[in-house]
Amino acid sequence: MQLSNDRARSGGGGPERAREHQEVRTPVPEEPAGVRYDDPWYDALAPDWSGAEPAPAPAPVVPAPREESTRDAMAEVYLAVQRSAAFQEVRSRYRRFVVPAGIGFFLWYVAYVIAATTAPGFMARPVVGAVNVALVAGLGQFLTTFLVAWAYARHARLRRDRAALDLRWDTQELTRGVKGGKP
Fold first, then answer.
1. Which H/E stretch holds residue 92?
2. Is residue 12 scored above 60 in pLDDT?
3. Cα dihedral across residues 48, 54, 57, 58: positive or negative
4. Which H or E run contains 122?
5. Considering the entire predicted model, what is its pTM?
6. Which helix (H) or strand (E) holds 20?
7. 8 A C-beta contact, residue 125 and residue 133
């Protein structure tokens, strides 16, 4: 049986064997101008079995702070969008579906659990052959899960996606204006 670093569990070999199976790292090509990779763990190596110290992680790149006025102006844009009637309509359409569907699904699940624990005779009643009420209700839980997921996706597509996309587009245009037209 092999470990993830290709060193056998038994048979020894010590640090020499671990070094000969180390992964060969190819150099990473330079990033295009204007693209930054800000992940501080990107080049940090995990310690290996040989006991060698991992390479130090590169210093994190700290983005240049924006001017306070630009940051405040963008915050105002987002607050204005949040207060808008279009945003409130999208949120209310979301809640009108999710709250009843969530409550209904939760009650159906709790009813199944309560019936399984308090009425074992009823749940053991055969429906067809070896299939009993508990099995049908359990499979109904799976069916209900897929049905709710389908209904949610349909509701989002028909009732919210277009309005949310328009709202997002307007928000992007407003923030682009605050930044001075820069992308």
1. helix 85-118
2. no
3. negative
4. helix 120-123
5. 0.55
6. helix 14-20
7. yes
pLDDT at 64 over 60: no
Residue count of the chain, please give it.
183
Specify the 3-state DSSP secondary structure of 127: strand
Is residue 148 classed as helix, strand or coil in its secondary structure?
helix
As a dihedral over the C-alpha atoms of residue 72, residue 74, residue 76, residue 81, rounded to 10 degrees, the angle is: -170
Vertex 89 angle, CA 86 and 94, to 5°: 130
Helix (H) or strand (E) holding 173: helix 161-178
Query: What pLDDT, in 10s, does the model give residues 128-182?
Result: 989 999 999 999 999 999 999 999 999 999 999 888 888 888 888 888 877 765 5
Cα–Cα separations (whole angstroms), residue 35 to 31, 32, 135, 158, 167: 6, 6, 55, 37, 28
Q: Which long-range contacts (CB under 8 A, 24 or more apart) does 76-84 make?
A: 77/171, 77/174, 77/175, 77/178, 78/171, 78/175, 80/174, 81/167, 81/170, 81/171, 81/174, 84/167
Lowest mean pLDDT among 17-21, 112-116, 162-166: 17-21
pLDDT for residue 59: 66
CB atoms closer than 10 angstroms to residue 171: 17
CA proximity to 58, closest of 28, 32, 26, 22: 28
